[in-house]
């Protein structure tokens, strides 16, 4: 007699290889979508720590400890291994909102690549300047850039006024414009050697060397004990300290 | 000393009963001096119970006792303060003619809390700093008097010279005597900055005495006698300046 397969079975049999091919296509295409580049969370390992330790004044263990701090700060609002401005603001001022002079400048200086986020390398490079053993020239330079609010290459009168007003407001003090002007007059009489109404880099350097307490905020004593403040996981500390 | 607890009972109620009745017995090898002291320590009545200063005076306790020595902070520079106070006594009589040391705008900026990265470490180390500063519109002499007025009832000895003051706690705190150096700076004729630095003793204690106190509830205050209430009230003065 004739073949034992029914017509339906025969049709299915013809289609099965086709279905297999289509199935395969769907699988491949779907996988392609999974392969789309997504922003991978940056992770660092022992070789990065060694490299960053060599590029800075920190030991490998200190870099690891700072990584713990970095991870904490960078995951507070957006967990992407990067510190966003709001996350820095949250860390410094307990709120991610509001305008803040210091925050803007500090964030800008941390963000070496100027891409709107602070990466771990940039974090280490800037904190290096705040290390108690960092050379005073680096601190003087950083302070100058910090106070040069509008990046004109000079610390202008208006910029100093802005900062003084901001600080007095934080102490809930509102002084008359006269008093504030007189404070700045006195400061500029001291600091502005060529009397051009603004403080240049050289004038700043001379001024700071006469008033060393100005650089107090440029040193973070906690960086010396950073490994006790942020004890890191055991397996990272297998990296030999040279 | 004995190798076993003075009050040991399987049930909590039984235990409390023993404590309340001071029902314990010292082993036979205890000296009479030790027995006596322990009896006075384990006194259930807080009024008749021995106090710490009295313990320190006890004959048995004092035998071979070495009082703890607390290290002075290494990195506190006392040169400027010492220089002022070690001057010959002639200067004591002179009128305070000089003005306070002046402070420029950048020094003001650098002392500000909001221009410091220190806060990045705050949570890890409890944010207790051994120094603090605040601004005031009062005249400098008034500022120093107010600090003196507030410090004395808290048990501090005050030494004033020009616009610097040394406050020394007279009772031993957690880490020895708390001492604080104060200086007033002139930012402008009507604006002064007051700096308080811990020069010895416990930082937590320093922090308690010098920063904005928490709100005192009426309940808390009412349990204290008048002099203590006044002293606590004066802790707030740092806000009033």
UniProtKB/TrEMBL annotation, chain A:
Q: Which residues form the EF-hand domain?
A: 98-133, 135-170, 179-214
Transmembrane residues, as ranges?
Answer: 14-34
One GO term in the molecular function aspect is:
kinase binding
| PROSITE patterns the record matches | EF_HAND_1, EF_HAND_2
**Taxonomy, superkingdom:** Eukaryota
The protein's UniProt keywords, in alphabetical order, are: Calcium, Membrane, Metal-binding, Repeat, Transmembrane, Transmembrane helix
Q: Which residue stretches, if any, does this entry annotate as coiled coil?
A: none
SMART domains the UniProt entry points to: EFh
Q: Known SUPFAM superfamilies for this protein?
A: EF-hand (SSF47473)
By its UniProt entry, which PANTHER family does this protein fall under?
CALCINEURIN B (PTHR23056), CALCINEURIN B-LIKE PROTEIN 10 (PTHR23056:SF26)
Q: What is this protein called?
A: Calcineurin B-like protein
UniProtKB/TrEMBL annotation, chain B:
Ranges of residues in domain NAF: 98-122
From the Swiss-Prot or TrEMBL record, what is one GO molecular function term? Answer: ATP binding
Q: Name one Pfam family in it.
A: NAF
E.C. number(s) listed in UniProt: 2.7.11.1
Which SUPFAM superfamilies is this protein grouped with?
Answer: Protein kinase-like (PK-like) (SSF56112)
* Coiled-coil annotated spans: none
**What EC class does the entry list?**
transferase
Q: Which PROSITE patterns match?
A: NAF (PS50816)
Q: Name one GO biological process term.
A: signal transduction
Q: Which reaction does it catalyse?
A: L-threonyl-[protein] + ATP = O-phospho-L-threonyl-[protein] + ADP + H(+); L-seryl-[protein] + ATP = O-phospho-L-seryl-[protein] + ADP + H(+)
Cite the entry's keywords alphabetically. ATP-binding, Kinase, Manganese, Nucleotide-binding, Serine/threonine-protein kinase, Transferase
Q: Does the keyword Ligase apply?
A: no
- What does the similarity note say? Belongs to the protein kinase superfamily. CAMK Ser/Thr protein kinase family. SNF1 subfamily.
- Return the protein name: non-specific serine/threonine protein kinase
The organism encoding this protein is Gossypium trilobum
Q: What is the lineage of its organism?
A: Eukaryota, Viridiplantae, Streptophyta, Embryophyta, Tracheophyta
């Amino acid at each position: 007699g004739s073949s034992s397969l029914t017509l339906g079975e025969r049709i299915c049999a013809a289609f099965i290889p086709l279905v297999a091919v289509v199935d395969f296509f769907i699988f491949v295409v779907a996988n392609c979508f999974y392969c789309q580049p997504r922003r991978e969370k940056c992770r660092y390992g022992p070789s990065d720590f060694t490299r960053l330790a060599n590029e800075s004044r920190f030991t490998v263990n200190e870099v690891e400890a700072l990584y713990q701090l970095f991870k904490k700060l960078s995951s507070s609002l957006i967990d992407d291994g990067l510190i966003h401005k709001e996350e820095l603001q949250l860390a410094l001022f307990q709120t991610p909102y509001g305008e803040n002079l210091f925050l803007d400048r500090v964030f800008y200086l941390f963000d070496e690549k100027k891409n709107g986020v602070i990466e771990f390398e940039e974090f280490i490079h800037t904190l290096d300047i705040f290390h108690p053993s960092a050379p005073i020239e680096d601190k003087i330079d950083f302070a100058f850039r910090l106070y040069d609010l509008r990046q004109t290459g000079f610390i202008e009168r208006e910029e100093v006024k802005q900062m003084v007003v901001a600080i007095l407001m934080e102490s809930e003090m509102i002084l008359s414009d006269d008093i504030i002007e007189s404070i700045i007059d006195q400061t500029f009489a001291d600091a502005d050697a060529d009397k051009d109404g603004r403080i240049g880099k050289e004038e700043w350097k001379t001024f700071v060397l006469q008033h060393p307490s100005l650089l107090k905020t440029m040193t973070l004593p906690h960086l010396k004990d950073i490994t006790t403040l942020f004890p890191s996981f055991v397996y990272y500390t297998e990296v030999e300290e040279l | 000393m004995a190798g076993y607890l003075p009050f040991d009972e399987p049930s909590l109620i039984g235990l409390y009963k023993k404590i309340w009745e001071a029902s314990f017995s010292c082993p036979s090898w205890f000296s009479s001096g030790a027995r006596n002291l322990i009896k006075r320590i384990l006194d259930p009545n807080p009024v008749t119970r021995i106090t710490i200063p009295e313990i320190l005076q006890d004959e048995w306790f004092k035998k071979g006792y070495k009082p703890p020595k607390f290290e002075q902070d290494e990195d506190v520079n006392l040169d400027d303060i010492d220089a002022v106070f070690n001057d010959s006594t002639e200067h004591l009589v002179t009128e305070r003619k000089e003005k306070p040391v002046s402070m420029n705008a950048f020094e003001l900026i650098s002392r500000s809390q909001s221009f410091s990265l220190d806060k990045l470490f705050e949570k890890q180390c409890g944010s207790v700093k051994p120094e603090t500063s605040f601004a005031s519109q009062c005249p400098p002499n008034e500022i120093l008097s107010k600090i003196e007025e507030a410090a004395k009832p808290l048990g501090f000895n005050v030494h004033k010279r020009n616009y610097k003051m040394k406050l020394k706690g007279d009772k031993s705190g957690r880490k020895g005597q708390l001492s604080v150096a104060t200086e007033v700076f002139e930012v402008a004729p009507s604006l002064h900055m007051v700096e308080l630095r811990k020069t010895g003793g416990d930082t937590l204690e320093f922090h308690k005495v010098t920063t904005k106190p928490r709100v005192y509830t009426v309940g808390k205050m009412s349990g204290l006698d008048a002099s203590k209430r006044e002293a606590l009230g004066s802790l707030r003065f740092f806000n009033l300046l």
